[in-house]
Amino acid sequence: MQYSYGMDDSGTPLYLAVAQDMAALIHSGALKPMERVPSVRLLARQRRVSITTAVASLRELEQRGLIEARPKSGYFVARRRPAPEPPAQVELPRRARLAGTQAILKRLADASLTPGIARLGQALPDPALFPEAALRACLARVARRDPTLLGEYPVRMGGSLALREQIARHYAHVGLALPAEELIITNGCMEALTLAMRVVTAPGDTIVVESPSYFGMLQIAESLGVKVIEIPSHPRDGLHIQALRELLSGKAGRDVRAVAITANFSNPNGSCMPVARKRELVKLCGEFDVVLIEDDVYGDLQFDGARPLPCKAFDRDGRVLLCSSFSKSLAPGARLGFIVPGRYRDMLRAAKHMISGATPLLQQEMLADFLQSGRYERHLRRMRRALSQQVMQLSQCVQDAFPEGTRLTQPEGGFVLWVELPSGIDTLALHEDAVRLGLDYVPGALFSASGRYANCLRLNAGYAVTPATETAIRRLGQLFQSRLAPAPRRAPERTR
Ligand SMILES: Cc1ncc(COP(=O)(O)O)c(C=O)c1O
Question: What 3-state class would DSSP assign to 69?
């Protein structure tokens, strides 16, 4: 539902600001499950807002599932089940290896084309969440304004200056100053990551990845003949800095050229590194002269509070290569990403020229036009709310339907859930059976170069949770349950 109410000092609608403060009280435990929340009148008085604003705030909290209305009694904090157990940390090998993911990825892509399959596999939001009509209008406007966009060969390797300026402006609001002229627009984030890894490594080199790690990163490393070492990532705080320090200090650390991570809402475990840890990571990379390749595609999709800073904000010597795209947040079909090249600007431009040439300009001008209009923030606010609700609802379906002992993440941004099933279930081996049943997910093994996470899976919460989703999750739960060895029967006790 859309409300049009006043704004607070930061430009957030008042009803949302009030709802966010209340949500923080609930998350922190200051307001306990089943406790009464202030009535509309009291809330309006306490916060000095109108009755309509107070009603809108409470409705917002209700929509997010944080409070529930009881007839004639008012609103109460929702009866929340205990937070699910986060997935456990696993032992990881210290030896560098090639990743080996290509064949499995092909099968996954084929599965996603199956008609009618529940969209629980690929990490994609529902197209209905994007401002498609507004983008179409921008596209028509820029095509009319500049007919040369299609008729002339794009020659600027950096891409549209208008778009680069808008990206720099967006990050300036986040608290990160970027020189617009240095940005390079790419074909999605994958091209940005590929270019980054290509210029900082040579075949046989090693990079460090967080574990579990986005499989695209493992795929790129594999295609470049680069070995990877996995360092554990905690589902809340991300990469284990001490483990990285130990690795870099030892013999295996000598071949490491780069660390590649998604510091903000990592895919798949949703972790978001606290600011102090980001600062420490950048410092550590400096100490050991290692490049940091940072993937920020989910950075704009936090559920509450301020947009998290990227590690790039702590970069003092151009060693952080910030890569991102609009694929998750605005327009997946535009295939537009970018890289902030730091000290590798010339090498990256040359590599971009050689590999794919300049990125097509028409979509770039379309996005620049949309961003210029100031509508991106408004769109993000809506999208964040929808994603936060979807993630919570999907998480509840999983808790209801998956076998006893299942653990899962509670991400605070992005839209994927990382699920750990009881050991003994092999999600990769079961994937074909699942697809045959019209069900999809991404098997955990894809997120590791060393065959870890066989009993894990990633679920996409990018789509609204419908009765069809609930059925799909229930059937997945039954499939997993059917592969669990029945509990051994107790031998009858002998009497002496
Ligand atoms: C962490 C991460 N990085 C990069 C990408 C790829 O982005 P793009 O589609 O813009 O190439 C994805 C897509 O799933 C992702 O999850």
Answer: strand
Contacts (Cβ under 8 Å, ≥6 apart) of 43: 18, 37, 49, 54, 57, 58
pTM summary value: 0.84
| Dist. CA 445–CA 104, nearest whole Å | 9
Identity (one letter) of the amino acid at 391? V
| Residue 212: cis peptide before it, omega within 30 degrees of 0 | yes
Q: Which atom of ligand 1 is nearest to the CA of 191?
A: 11
Ligand 1 pocket, CB under 6 A: 123, 188-190, 214, 216, 262, 267, 295, 297, 325, 327, 337
Both tokens assigned to 332 = 């997946």
Separation of alpha carbons 318 and 397, rounded Å:
44
Q: Which CATH class is domain 14-77?
A: mainly alpha
Condensed to tens digits (0 to 9), the pLDDT of residues 297-355 reads 999 999 999 999 999 999 999 999 999 999 999 999 999 999 999 999 999 999 999 99
Q: Are strands 442-443 and 456-460 parallel, antiparallel or unpaired?
A: antiparallel
User: Among all chains, which residue has been given the structure tokens 């990633």?
Assistant: 458
Query: Which ligand 1 atom sits nearest the alpha carbon of residue 332?
Result: 9
Do 130 and 331 meet the contact criterion of CB atoms below 8 Å apart? yes
Residue-wise pLDDT for 388-447, tens only, equals 999 999 999 999 999 999 999 999 999 999 999 999 999 999 998 898 888 999 999 999
3-state SS of 329-342?
Answer: CCCHHHCEEEEECH
Domain-wise residue ranges, the chain: 14-77, 147-375
Q: How far is the CA of 324 from the centre of ligand 1 (A)?
A: 8
Per-residue pLDDT reduced to its tens digit, 366-378: 999 999 999 999 9
What single letter denotes the amino acid at residue 78?
A: A
Nearest to 17 by CA among 32, 7, 3: 7
Compute φ and ψ for 230, nearest 5 degrees. Answer: -100, 135
> In the CATH hierarchy, which top-level class contains the domain 147-375?
alpha beta
